[in-house]
Design goal:
mainly alpha; Tetracycline Repressor, domain 2; 2 domains; 10 helices; 0% strand; elongated
Length: 192
């Protein structure tokens, strides 16, 4: 029987679907290959290791944020509201596999995965950079550094809250994010 040659998207989608059932820790790439009717080499062509699937998942969320950033209605909003809309789009892209997303983060934070922890820090930085860019933030020098640091804190607090409150109403999540963005001194930077 001929083996299939799945795309990177098909592999990621199948891995997420299987992880919804068994959990990220228990997911094995050979099971993904079996479910897709391919061999491991077909998966290795797109993903060198299991963590590459995690990166692809977060890349997908970053793309949703950037797509939202192109919307015409965003340009007329305040900086705070643009940031809110963009992060909500990012979280919305992750929502179909929220529990698995949290499991992926725990996998990255395992003590034996220092190499993944460093990648996780770079991922946070990359997402915050895209978030700022899509929001058209133009602060420079010390103001930019302060804003990036404060936005990183707001991003992490909102993301962790979102992971742990799956039943929360969307309006409550938005209210929490707004509070994060209005906290001094970040609120001052966004209004300045």
């Amino acid at each position: 029987m001929p083996r299939s040659t799945p795309s990177a998207t098909q592999i990621l989608d199948k891995a997420l679907d299987l992880a919804d059932i068994c959990g990220w820790e228990r997911l094995h790439l050979h099971e993904v290959a079996d479910a897709l009717g391919c061999d491991l080499a077909a998966i290795a062509r797109h993903y060198r290791q299991k963590d590459d699937l995690v990166e692809a998942w977060f890349d997908r969320a970053d793309q949703a944020l950037l797509a939202r950033g192109k919307a015409a209605d965003l340009a007329i909003l305040t900086a705070e509201k643009r940031l809110e809309e963009l992060l909500i789009a990012w979280l919305g892209a992750l929502a179909p596999h929220r529990a698995v997303t949290g499991q992926m983060l725990l996998y990255k934070l395992e003590p034996g995965h220092v190499h993944l922890q460093v990648g996780g820090l770079l991922r946070v930085s990359r997402t915050v950079q895209w978030w700022r860019e899509a929001a058209r933030r133009q602060n420079l020098h010390l103001s930019r550094i302060a804003e990036e640091s404060l936005l990183t804190g707001a991003y992490l607090r909102t993301f962790v809250h979102w992971l742990h409150h799956a039943e929360e109403a969307p309006a409550d999540l938005r209210a929490l994010l707004r509070r994060q963005l209005r906290r001094a001194p970040l609120g001052w930077l966004l209004r300045g």
